[in-house]
Write a structure and sequence with these properties.
Shape: flat
Number of helices: 5
Distance between the termini: 57 Å
Largest sheet: none
Order of helices and strands: HHHHH
Helix content: 55-70%
Amino acid sequence: MPRETNAAKRERAIEVCERLNRRYGPVECFLDHENPFRLLIAVLLSAQTTDAQVNKVTPKLFAQWPTPEAMAVASRALSTSKGPSPASDRHSRMSVATTFEPP
């Protein structure tokens, strides 16, 4: 069986989205975001806590590290400043977010 082309995958994905939209209607996102990068980070954080809590911490998080490049540098800096640790990659990613827990 031949592999599906990228164009065919895109067309199929659009068709699936259109069918879901017809069946369930438009979906509202409760996470505050300005671009796909910020939405991705908010979704990752929302797996650990409520959307309301994520919306409280992300403004300060993105004020300090507004781009993927800035956040990548921050993640490495935070993980190396704590010294060597057997922590998983997931823990390292979350360390940036936990720095911004509201009072």
